[in-house]
UniProtKB/TrEMBL annotation:
<dbReference type="GO" id="GO:0005929">
    <property type="term" value="C:cilium"/>
</dbReference>
<dbReference type="GO" id="GO:0003341">
    <property type="term" value="P:cilium movement"/>
</dbReference>
<dbReference type="Pfam" id="PF13181">
    <property type="entry name" value="TPR_8"/>
</dbReference>
<protein>
    <recommendedName>
        <fullName>Tetratricopeptide repeat protein 29</fullName>
    </recommendedName>
</protein>
<keyword id="KW-0677">Repeat</keyword>
<dbReference type="InterPro" id="IPR019734">
    <property type="entry name" value="TPR_rpt"/>
</dbReference>
<feature type="region of interest" description="Disordered">
    <location>
        <begin position="29"/>
        <end position="67"/>
    </location>
</feature>
<keyword id="KW-0963">Cytoplasm</keyword>
<dbReference type="InterPro" id="IPR011990">
    <property type="entry name" value="TPR-like_helical_dom_sf"/>
</dbReference>
<comment type="function">
    <text>Axonemal protein which is implicated in axonemal and/or peri-axonemal structure assembly and regulates flagellum assembly and beating and therefore sperm motility.</text>
</comment>
<dbReference type="InterPro" id="IPR051476">
    <property type="entry name" value="Bac_ResReg_Asp_Phosphatase"/>
</dbReference>
<keyword id="KW-0802">TPR repeat</keyword>
<feature type="repeat" description="TPR">
    <location>
        <begin position="198"/>
        <end position="231"/>
    </location>
</feature>
<dbReference type="GO" id="GO:0005737">
    <property type="term" value="C:cytoplasm"/>
</dbReference>
Length: 389
């Protein structure tokens, strides 16, 4: 008899709620006491700089015509905002800060030039954005001060503040740059068990993931995972970094699996994702990972393994009172039983699917389950197959 039930849904979904890409990404932003003090200090410096600029602007409006040439510097009006910022940095003796800022602006200008008309899709040029230039100036000079003192942790904190700030403003090319600078500095820090390096690997991994370079994302996230597995690290909110590493690796492995056209590679990465969900002790995500893995084994015609995966999904869905998940689990189990020739079990699963859909009031699920049950019953009748249920 030809198979009656439809094939498993295209991965990763059984229904929209199972698409993992809608998950909120969790960032590692633990600061600690010193990190908070450093952040507050930078903010105070930025605010003081802006107040000073306002005072200077007001003073320039008070003209003493007897000393006009001494009061007004024409270069302040002739030169660009970026030029004046660079001049200010150099005048204070921060040559490394000047070099890094200048190279960043030159790189962005070159990217815009290469993009041509497509430059409109890139981040706006920062060389005429006073708020961004102020933030860069203060943090870069703070990092250079710390470097002169040999305080690598303070260098790292300044670079991390820049990276997280530009994450929030959406200037990802800048945040990517400073996450990489954090990684360079983190590798040099001694005495913290490589925690700063680990956090930097985490953020660089996320940056690669956002750009679609999943191989590089996995490379950095796996280093973060290895470092957290050997240390009992927590964020300031008490969240375990090992669990966070597992959750992010699970998501990236799932994305790689979704993009794979090779069934063996698909199963390999879905198995990795399932393992990570178990290590994270996230039973809800473990259930979804089991469902995806079961669908992959169905695609590979391994219905015995698929059955075990879908049973695990059913168990987790019941535990979390997820009626939609329970219904999808019964539908998947019915498919597997049908492929194995166990029509009695297939019908039983479909009837349970109908019951769950009726109780939950999910109209779409109810219609879907009734169609599947009706189809299989009609086919059984037309083939003179009698089941006692």
């Amino acid at each position: 008899m030809a198979n009656i039930l439809p094939p498993p849904p295209a991965l990763p979904s059984g229904s929209v709620q199972y698409i993992h890409s809608s998950e909120k990404v969790q960032y590692v932003q633990s600061r600690g006491k010193r990190g908070k003090e450093h952040k507050n200090s930078l903010q105070q410096q930025i605010e003081e700089m802006r107040r000073q600029k306002k005072r200077d602007g007001k003073n320039e409006g008070r003209i003493d015509f007897n000393n006009l040439s001494k009061q007004i510097d024409p270069s302040n009006y002739r030169n660009s905002l970026f030029h004046n910022t660079c001049t200010s940095i150099l005048a204070k003796g921060y040559h490394q800060s000047f070099t890094e800022l200048f190279e960043l602006v030159q790189k962005q200008r070159e990217d815009h030039r290469i993009a041509g008309p497509g430059a409109i899709l890139l981040s706006p040029l920062i060389d005429d954005k006073p708020d961004k230039l102020d933030y860069l100036q203060v943090c870069l000079m703070s990092a250079e001060d710390a470097s002169r003192r040999g305080d690598l942790e303070a260098v790292y904190l300044s670079q991390r503040d820049l990276a997280l700030h530009f994450d929030q403003t959406g200037d990802h090319w800048l945040s990517d740059h400073f996450h990489n600078r954090c990684l360079e500095t983190g590798r040099l820090i001694k005495g913290d068990g490589r925690r700063k390096e680990g956090e930097a690997h985490f953020h660089v991994g996320l940056a690669y993931e956002n750009r679609g370079d999943l191989d590089k994302a996995v490379e950095h996230m796996e280093i973060f995972y290895e470092l957290t597995s050997a240390n009992n690290w927590h964020t300031e909110n008490g969240e375990n970094l090992y669990r966070i590493a597992c959750e992010h690796l699970r998501r990236i492995y799932t994305t790689i699996a979704e993009k794979s056209e090779d069934t063996s590679l698909l199963i390999e990465y879905l198995q990795k994702a399932h393992t990570m969900s178990k290590k994270a002790k996230d039973t809800y995500q473990e259930g979804l990972a089991s469902y995806r893995l079961g669908c992959a084994h169905e695609k590979n015609k391994d219905f015995d393994t698929a059955l075990q995966c879908h049973k695990s999904f059913l168990e987790r869905s019941r535990y979390h009172s997820d009626e939609v998940g329970v219904g999808n689990a019964y539908e998947a189990l019915a498919r597997c039983h049908e492929h194995k020739g166990d029509l009695e079990s297939a019908v039983q699963c479909l009837e349970l699917y109908v019951n769950v859909a009726e109780k939950s009031g999910a109209t779409e699920s109810l219609a879907k389950s009734c169609r599947a049950a009706g189809t299989i019953f009609n086919t059984l009748v037309s083939n003179n197959v009698c089941l006692v249920i």
